[in-house]
């Protein structure tokens, strides 16, 4: 196991520079040459590239609308990059310019979209502060050195190169979206304009928002200042350094026993998958590796997981939570369920419990992992488009941001809101009542059933949940035991029969799988945009004429080769899928087969849950 950071210096307090391979202290894979730092050399390259683009645009596009504009906006130095029609085809008369697709983010959703979009049909531009994709399920293993950071990242430029290099990438944050003028405002940390503030504008025809989420602190005082988060590769590296710092500090000569204990008290706030996996990894790291290196202080180490709810891993099958709790107990990891952290200072964590009131514990290092919140750029965008009261950006079933033309949102930054049957019940009735008789026969219902089930997948889910094979069973159940041929329903009876189907509408979980599937689905829609005009593949529209151009996301075949590239996980996933444990003992015995320490084993538990549709 890797104990010392690659720079060879443990806990030197140096914050890693932001983003990029240099920042991660990793080298890009073979065949790609990345600079070791984003120092002036890289800035110059970026600036040169930018100015080169500008010069080219000027040469070929004398008209104002097609110019690359470099201007100083009020407040200074905003570069407007309006190279909307940059492809060569656009320059040939009579050839329609490619539509510009701007993608924000290089995480699970954005990268999968980029990998799958037909970049010969679109002018694709990717903007993200991270020039690599990170395989987040392995982040907890990076905190303890079980896995090297370089093993879990893939440079975005490598992906672009594989696709023939047509896609452009800008390493920058988008800080404002202007849907009215179809522009995004970006800021690069490495500085791209004369003012050096790195701000520039990019316009789009289609915008794909895939910026993920940020850690949610619930505004708890002191969290940002004193706790670690575990969302990015840099976070994992910082945690690793911090753990080592705690061990080194605890061995210093002039510390009393209490202070040593405090320093070696590791607290994880949040009993979700990330917190649990991290606590488990840390336990392995401490007991298998650090105990040998720091034998005099190993007995002072304590790991505590604080969870507000009554149990941990509540999003999974109960057996997994139970197994994890039992395993924690066996391994001496203290679990404080029913405790809400209300304040964090540099040395103590204060929490509240319904029975015990307020209490404080001293700690040496804390990792905050209590779920996800919305990024500021998304909050601002939501306000602009009238979604200010929501938690995440709402899209329809085709992943289009509601009330916002040509803008799509995928992954953790969005929630897909499924249209309810009861919202459209009158239209569904009219749609089915082909002879306008005011009643529906079984045949009329069956003629439109497929379209209804595609448009409202909750209908099929509901039937399955009630072990019904046909909607006729549902109608019979609400109307009494009438013969199938004699069944005829008026609107009230129809409403009655379908009254509960919407209870099965659920938000999709914020997982890598959902994000990747959405990226894949959306790319496919873009690739079939032209074909679908002539041959729409979606269901009949209920409220308007014609068919929807595409199947909604929920009806899309969601089999995504999620872990194909990462063979170790792929194998483990297969392993987990093939064996269905029935109780916590069985889960335990199955997980004990996996040799790599139980941090990895919990991951298997979560993969297994994923196979069952939870994660
Ligand atoms: C430690 C950990 C373990 C996990 N384990 C699992 C697991 O085992 N299975 C599972 O299914 N899920 C797991 N998840 C959840 C999974 O990682 C997320 O659901 C997934 O990353 C969401 O993908 P995304 O593309 O929406 O966001 P992300 O992957 O977070 O990507 C967001 C991207 O947007 C970029 N970005 C951010 N702000 C901006 C901006 N202003 N402008 C432009 N770009 C921006 C980011 O740099 C990043 O490239 C885990 C998450 C964590 C943190």
Automatic annotation (TrEMBL):
Keyword Mitochondrion: yes
Reactions mediated catalytically: a quinone + NADH + H(+) = a quinol + NAD(+); a ubiquinone + NADH + H(+) = a ubiquinol + NAD(+)
Organism: Musa balbisiana (Banana)
Source taxon at top rank: Eukaryota
GO molecular function per UniProt: calcium ion binding; NADH dehydrogenase (quinone) (non-electrogenic) activity
UniProt topology in membrane: Peripheral membrane protein
Signal peptide: none
GO cellular component: mitochondrial inner membrane
Organism ancestry: Eukaryota, Viridiplantae, Streptophyta, Embryophyta, Tracheophyta
Entry's localization field: Mitochondrion inner membrane
Family: Belongs to the NADH dehydrogenase family.
InterPro entries: EF-hand-dom_pair, EF_Hand_1_Ca_BS, EF_hand_dom, FAD/NAD-bd_sf, FAD/NAD-binding_dom, NDH-2
Annotated keywords: Calcium, FAD, Flavoprotein, Membrane, Mitochondrion, Mitochondrion inner membrane, NAD, Oxidoreductase, Transit peptide
EC number from the UniProt entry: 1.6.5.9
Primary site of residence: mitochondrion
Name the UniProt record assigns to this protein: NADH:ubiquinone reductase (non-electrogenic)
EF-hand domain span: 420-455
């Amino acid at each position: 196991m890797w104990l010392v950071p690659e720079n060879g210096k443990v806990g030197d307090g140096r914050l890693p520079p932001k983003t990029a391979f240099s920042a991660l202290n990793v080298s890009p894979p073979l065949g790609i040459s990345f600079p070791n730092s984003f120092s002036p050399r890289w800035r110059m390259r970026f600036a040169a590239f930018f100015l080169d683009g500008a010069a080219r645009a000027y040469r070929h596009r004398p008209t104002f609308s097609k110019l690359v504009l470099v201007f100083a906006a009020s407040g200074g130095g905003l570069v407007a990059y309006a190279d909307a029609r940059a492809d060569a085809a656009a320059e040939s008369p009579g050839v329609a310019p490619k539509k510009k697709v701007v993608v924000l983010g290089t995480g699970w959703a954005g990268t999968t979209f980029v990998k799958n979009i037909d970049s010969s049909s679109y002018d694709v531009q990717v903007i993200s502060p991270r020039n690599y994709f990170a395989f987040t399920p392995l982040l907890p293993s990076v905190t303890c050195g079980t896995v090297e950071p370089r093993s879990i990242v893939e440079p975005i430029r490598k992906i672009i190169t594989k696709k023939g290099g047509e896609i452009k990438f800008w390493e920058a944050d988008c800080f404002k979206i202007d849907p009215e003028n179809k522009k995004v405002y970006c800021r690069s940390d490495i500085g791209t304009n004369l003012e050096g503030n790195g701000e520039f504008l990019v316009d789009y025809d289609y915008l794909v928002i895939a910026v993920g989420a940020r850690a949610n602190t619930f505004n708890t005082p002191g969290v940002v200042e004193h706790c670690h988060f575990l969302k990015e590769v840099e976070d994992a590296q910082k945690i690793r350094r911090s753990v080592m710092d705690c061990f080194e500090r605890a061995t210093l000569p002039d510390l009393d026993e209490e202070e040593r204990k405090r320093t070696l008290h590791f607290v994880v706030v949040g009993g979700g998958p990330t917190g649990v996996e991290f606590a488990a990894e840390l336990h392995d790291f401490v007991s298998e590796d650090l105990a040998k290196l720091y034998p005099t202080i190993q007995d002072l180490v304590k790991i505590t997981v604080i969870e507000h709810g009554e149990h941990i891993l509540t999003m999974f099958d109960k057996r997994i939570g139970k197994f994890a709790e039992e395993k924690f107990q066996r391994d001496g990891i203290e679990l404080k369920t029913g405790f809400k952290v209300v304040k964090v200072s540099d040395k103590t964590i204060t929490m509240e419990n319904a029975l015990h009131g307020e209490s404080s514990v001293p700690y040496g290092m804390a990792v905050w992992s209590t779920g996800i919140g919305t990024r500021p750029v998304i909050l601002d965008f939501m306000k602009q488009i009238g979604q200010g009261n929501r938690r995440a950006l709402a899209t329809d079933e085709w992943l289009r941001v509601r009330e916002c033309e040509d803008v799509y949102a995928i992954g953790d930054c969005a929630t897909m809101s499924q249209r309810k049957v009861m919202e459209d019940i009158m239209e569904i009735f009219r749609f089915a009542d082909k002879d306008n008789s005011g009643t529906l026969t079984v045949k009329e219902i069956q003629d439109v059933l497929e379209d209804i089930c595609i448009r409202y997948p909750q209908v099929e889910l509901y039937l399955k949940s009630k072990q019904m094979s046909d909607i006729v069973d549902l109608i019979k159940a609400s109307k009494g035991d009438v013969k199938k041929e004699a069944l005829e329903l008026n609107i009230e009876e129809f409403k009655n029969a379908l009254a509960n189907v919407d209870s099965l509408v659920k938000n999709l979980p914020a997982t890598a799988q959902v994000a990747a599937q959405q990226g894949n689905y959306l790319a496919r829609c873009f690739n079939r945009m032209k074909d679908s005009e002539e041959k729409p593949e979606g269901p009949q529209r209920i409220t308007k004429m014609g068919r929807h151009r595409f199947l909604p996301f929920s009806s899309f075949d969601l089999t995504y080769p999620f872990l194909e590239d990462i063979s170790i996980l792929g194998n483990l996933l297969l392993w987990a899928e093939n064996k269905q444990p029935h109780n916590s003992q069985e889960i335990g015995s199955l997980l004990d087969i996996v040799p790599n320490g139980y941090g990895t084993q919990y991951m298997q538990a979560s993969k297994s849950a994923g196979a069952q549709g939870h994660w």
